[in-house]
Amino acid sequence: MGFTTLMPLFAALGFGVGLSAFYTLRLATRNPDVTWRRSTNPEPWEEFRTAQYKFMNTANHDYSKSPAPKF
Amino acid sequence: MLVQGKFSRVNELTRPNFFRLLWSSFSVGFADLSSSHSHTMSEVQQLSTAPFDPRFPNQNQTRHCYSSYVDYHRCIRKKGEDYPACEYFRKAYRSLCPNSWIEKWNDQMEAGTFPGKI
Q1: Is A41 inside any structural domain?
Q2: Which domain holds residue A33?
Q3: N or C terminus of chain A: which is more exposed, having fewer CB within 10 Å?
Q4: Minimal C-alpha gap between A24 and chain B (Å)
């Protein structure tokens, strides 16, 4: 069973599958709309009231103040 | 030939040039805009929409719309109709939500069948 000639295929496939898996897991854990236990975390987007979701703050937005008032 | 030439010159004097006609029509239009309609040009309505909310950073703003609607009614129920903070939520859901959804939810609220927790 010589798979040596197939190694480039496995490398490319592994990279693709790895990237997809990484992104899916990132979405599952970091997305503001996803909650794993609705009983303990009913509104998961509230964690982002003062947090930044994007990678880089290119618009110089002030994340310490939220526009939605609390009542 | 001479008579025709003389008449053609007179016509040229009296018949307006095409480009002069065009320019005069434009200048009449500008005069209208500047003199009598200046108040409508300067009174541009201040339009605004819901500001960026970091809780809903992505393109899909459905949850932003629904949260604003629910928060508005919770605010009304808790603080009364004229509380100024509730106005923020009202403007947000009016800007973000499709009008058919707003009508449907308003009908459900009146009938008491709205599924959200208010």
Answers
A1: yes
A2: 4-62
A3: N
A4: 16
With an 8 Å Cβ cutoff, are A68 and B71 in contact? yes
The verdict on a CB contact (< 8 Å) between B55 and A54 is: no
For residues A35 and A50, give the distance between their C-alpha atoms in angstroms, rounded to a whole number. Answer: 18
Cβ–Cβ gap B83/A48 under 8 Å: no
Residues A70, B109: Cα–Cα separation, whole Å: 23
**Backbone phi and psi for residue B81, each to the nearest 5 degrees, phi listed first:** -70, -25
Tokens of B45: 């309505």
Total domains in chain A come to 1
Domains of chain B, each with CATH number or no CATH: 76-118 (1.10.10.140)
Classify residue A69: in a domain, yes or no: no
Is the pTM above the cut of 0.95? no
Report the gap between the CA of A54 and the closest CA in chain B (Å). Answer: 8
Does the pLDDT of residue B22 top 80, yes or no?
Answer: no
The chain B residue lying nearest A57, using CA atoms, is: B54
In whole angstroms, what is the distance from residue B66 CA to residue A71 CA? Answer: 17
Contacts of A54 in chain B (CB under 8 A): 57
**What's chain B's Rg over C-alpha atoms?**
30
Q: Is the pLDDT of residue B3 over 90?
A: no
